[in-house]
Amino acid sequence: MDEALKKQILAAQRNEITEYHVYTKLADLAKNEQNAQVLRSIGEAEKAHAEFWKTKTGVEVEPNWGKVWRTVMLARILGLTFVLKRMEKNEGTASRKYAEIEAAFPEVKKIAEDEAAHEKSLLAMLDEELLQYVGSIVLGLNDALVELTGALAGFTLALGDTKIISLAGLVTGISAAFSMAASDYLSSKAEGDPKAARSALYTGLAYFITVILMILPFLLIPYKFISLAITLAIVVVIIFLFNYYISVAKDLNFRQRFWEMTFISLGVAAFSFTLGWILKIMLGVDA
């Protein structure tokens, strides 16, 4: 066995034993016992693959504990679905790497088939509460981004002090969050949705959190135009992170959704800023 091939096999061995620990720990996080069993069985298969490679290398390889810790922490924060979808994409990468080793070890074909079966098992088990309410989260998040971005841009030009802008933004945003949650509840209730209250909670919570993040610069920084610029940057970051999460968890087009939401939110902000400037001149307001 040449050094290049041995290096590839050692990397594969370490990856397998690392994923054994990842799947085992993710199984402990799974609330659904059937899902937990699937994760444990996949973990055991990964361990068996690592043992197979050990017979070829004769080396005991330590798992990548940093990767194990990062993956588990990510699952705690963003949920199992997001993490498993990311791992599913990596499984495809692992299958392609095995194809390169298959010439030297025909047994690798079975391992590659196991990896493909893992992907199907993962896809079949993905059913997380958070993703059931994506529509409600999108409603709250998108409305908050569009409405409050425009409002804050208008307030920035029309009003003088950042504290007053913060007050106006908080009153507008928090009121809108309750209004949006109530509207979502009544709409879902009218359609006979038994989960209307939870749907409304996700909508209102997404709106409220977005409002707080967008108002923070005006509360912390006394210069209103700098605060507005930071708020717009926060808006873009929120849109980026949310759409990345959804694109991975729901297999959607990230680029299209990101640019669409960014264009709408910043477009409304530009329009509101211009409108505030025109009205300020017309009404002779000096603030």
UniProtKB/TrEMBL annotation:
Ubl conjugation listed as a keyword: no
Gene Ontology terms: cellular component: endomembrane system
Name of the protein this chain belongs to: Uncharacterized protein
Record's subcellular location: Endomembrane system
A single GO BP: intracellular manganese ion homeostasis
Entry annotated with the keyword Membrane: yes
Keyword terms: Membrane, Transmembrane, Transmembrane helix
CDD domains: Ferritin_CCC1_C, Ferritin_CCC1_N
